[in-house]
Every structure is written in structure tokens, then in C-alpha cells.
């Protein structure tokens, strides 16, 4: 794990860029003598880890006493994309905007993307937990499909917050019942890209008994600010 | 408004019983020099205001700096019931336990109960707001059907938290779209007496744009303790 740059933010947080082989990542750590619990924060696959809303969420979370890390996994964010991936992404966007069925494209494109992302997130997790400023336990926040796969595959994840679970590959819908860690499931009631009924069915399917659904009005990017604080308290209950 | 008894609790709260004509009530107020915002806390119709879970909720809320009041409205709680009401209540319970349709009984029994309760809650609100230790604004917490009617009829109510909205009389389902105050809607996913799909439809129907749904696993009395704190922050955002 090579740190390629660092800067100290106004509130004392340390924000560092790193690379781990081909994987680029960002790590935010609080000013603290003790090793901090870690939260892995993943965007949906189309956006880079430097996207302002993810960065704001990461900084706010780190300021509550967490180490927060994000990576651009293979094919995600700013990582190189094949021509076929570019095409699939464009097809998916066009079909969603046209209100056409997207399951086929989704399955053939996002399914493999999740499969390729998981080992890279686990590699990052190994490297992050080896740092002296990071302790356990580990939480996950963000992209639902990746989070399901990670929560099932990775026993070190102790709590997970998922956002927008309308479209999730079949493999992850099926393994949702194997997720047994405490869960906060955040839903935008009129999310243009995530059918509400499917998201509710996914929430119902999770195997964990300690799951909470929070739903608010509005579209995909309309989540109210107080949900960030609610999420913080969810992690506090399970990771601190 | 006649105070008939008072006691000072360990945490400095003052708990007073009062009567207002035929209406018995309880008022919890915090130790505070300034006038406190008021929360009207109503149980579902079958339970008295002295029921331990409501009392615990009221005390916790008052300790956060609120005046909290509850009454037993006509036909509710410990108030006298007609033989017909007794019978309707027994029929309703039996039908629910047997998994039979309850809409008919519900409509003919709970509908009038809500209609009779509303003027008594408004009378109590007038008397409570005349006390120097209580200021505005006013929040509502609890029984969904009563809360809908009050939120529509009573402009002094500025925020409302509703619990378990599976069975609600038709009149209140229809006026849900007229509710425009900020709303926190609390749902138990497997509430044995409140069909989930109906509760989700009611949440969808409310007219307010600032509404949040919280759902947790388990039956009617299984709401996790942290929802009380989440509810407190909801009222803090809108009443303080």
C-alpha cells in the first residue's frame, strides 16, 4: 500500500490517496490516538471515489471517529473501461431513461462488475487493517449489490448500511438471506433508477433480524442530510 | 384544568395527574425555566394512558426538554365503555386472532371512537397551552388514526410521529393526503395487527413532502429502543 499524497483538512482529518497495485484508493482518518474502527464506503459502480457527495459523506463520517476508505474497483469510477463496458453502461442508461426493461443489461453488466470488485475490496481491507491507526470492527456503507456480496463473503464486516436496492443482480438478491449482520437500508421513495417495490422485497429478504429501513421522499440524490447522522448512530451502536 | 396529584421523579421531571371535566390526563414537564414545547402522546385506543410503555416513552421524551401530555379520551383507556363498545372490542380481537376480515368491525367501532376523541384532545390542547410552563409549537406522537384527524383539524400541530398504520378508518385514510406537517412514520415489519402493505400505502398517501418511514423487524410491541431516540431527534428538528 503506497500513500501517494496526503493533506490535513481544517477539522484535523487526514485525507490520503493510496495505490495498492492497480487499485486507487482514498483513506480518511480522524485525529485520534486510538486505533479507529473502519468503514468501507462504496459508491454505485458508475461514479468515482472522488465524487463530491461521497467525499462529503466520508469526511463527515471520519469526523465522528472512523477511518473511512474508498477505492475505485476494476471497471468502476475512474478505472479504465473496455469498449464493451462503455457500451453496456450507455445501453443501461438509455434503457432506464426510456423506461424500458433493464434486467437483461443489468444482469450481464453489473453482475460481473460486482464479482470483479469484491476481491479488490478484500485486498484493500487486508491492507487497511494492517495499518496501526486502524482497528476493528469493520462497517460497510453504500452500493447495495457489492455490500451484499462482501457481507456474505467477508466475516470481518460487522454492520452494513445499504443505499438504493432497487436493481441488484440476481446472485446478490439470492444471497441476501445469507446476510446476517445488522443492517440499515436507506431508500428514496421515488428513486428514478430503483423501483420501490423491488427495494422493499430485498429489504424483506435479508436474513438478519436486526435490520432497519429508512425511507424518505424524493429521487435518487434527494436523501435528507439527517440520514447521514442517523447512519452515524447506526455505526456507533455496532462498531464502537 | 384541575391537578389532582403530582410527584417529582428522580430525574427532576414533574408528573401530574389532571382532570378536565370528564377527561383524565397526565402531564409530564421537565425541570426548566423556559416554556417547553408540547408533545401530545396518544396510545392506540385500547390501552390506558397509564400503560407502562407509554409512561416510559413520555418520561424519556419529557427528559429531552418537552412537556408531554396524554389523556384517556371518551371510550378509550380507563374511560367507561358501553356494552356495545365492549362487544365490538371483543369481536375485533377475536376476528384479528382468527385472521378473519376486520374492516367492517373496525369501521363501525374505531371510526366513531376517533371522531369522539378528537374534540377532547383539542380541549386538552387549549388547556395545556394556557399553562405558563408550556409554550409552542406542538407535536403529536402515537395512534395513527387520531393523529391524522388531529393533524388535519388542528393547525397548532407542527410535526407528527405515527405508529402502526395498518388499520385506519376509511375517513382517515382519505384525509391522509391533507396531512402536510413533517411526519415520522414508524412501522413494525411483522406487526400482527397491522398489515404491512396497508401501512406502506398509507405512508405513500400522506400529503406532506417531508415524511420519513422507519421500519424494524418484529411484532407490534417489538420496536427497538433506538427508535425513541430517533423520534426525539425528529421532534428536535421541528419543534425546537
Automatic annotation (TrEMBL), chains A, B:
Taxonomic placement: Bacteria, Bacillati, Actinomycetota, Actinomycetes, Kitasatosporales
Source organism (scientific name): Streptomyces lunalinharesii
Name the UniProt record assigns to this protein: Alpha/beta hydrolase
Top-rank lineage group of the source organism: Bacteria
InterPro entries: AB_hydrolase_fold
Amino acid at each position: 500500500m503506497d500513500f501517494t499524497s496526503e493533506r490535513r483538512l481544517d477539522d484535523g482529518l487526514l485525507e490520503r490517496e493510496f495505490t495498492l497495485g492497480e487499485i486507487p484508493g482514498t483513506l480518511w482518518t480522524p485525529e485520534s490516538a486510538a486505533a479507529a474502527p473502519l468503514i468501507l464506503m462504496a459508491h454505485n459502480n458508475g461514479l468515482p471515489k472522488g465524487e463530491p457527495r461521497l467525499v462529503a459523506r466520508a469526511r463527515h463520517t471520519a469526523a465522528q471517529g472512523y477511518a473511512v476508505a474508498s477505492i475505485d474497483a476494476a471497471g468502476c469510477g475512474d478505472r479504465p473501461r473496455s469498449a464493451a463496458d462503455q457500451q453496456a453502461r450507455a445501453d443501461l442508461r438509455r434503457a432506464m431513461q426510456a423506461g424500458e426493461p433493464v434486467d437483461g443489461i443489468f444482469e450481464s453488466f453489473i453482475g460481473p462488475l460486482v464479482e470483479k470488485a469484491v476481491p479488490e475490496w478484500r485486498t484493500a481491507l487486508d491492507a487497511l487493517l494492517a495499518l496501526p491507526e486502524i482497528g476493528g470492527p469493520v462497517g460497510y456503507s453504500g452500493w447495495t449489490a457489492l455490500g451484499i456480496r462482501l457481507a456474505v463473503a467477508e466475516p470481518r464486516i460487522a454492520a452494513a448500511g445499504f443505499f438504493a436496492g432497487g436493481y441488484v443482480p440476481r446472485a446478490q438478491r439470492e444471497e441476501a438471506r445469507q446476510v446476517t449482520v445488522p443492517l440499515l437500508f436507506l431508500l428514496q421513495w421515488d428513486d428514478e433508477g430503483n423501483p420501490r417495490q423491488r427495494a422493499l422485497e430485498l429489504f424483506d429478504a435479508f436474513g438478519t433480524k436486526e435490520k432497519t429501513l429508512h425511507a424518505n421522499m424524493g429521487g435518487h440524490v434527494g436523501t435528507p442530510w439527517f440520514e447521514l447522522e442517523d447512519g452515524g448512530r447506526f455505526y456507533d451502536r455496532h462498531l464502537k
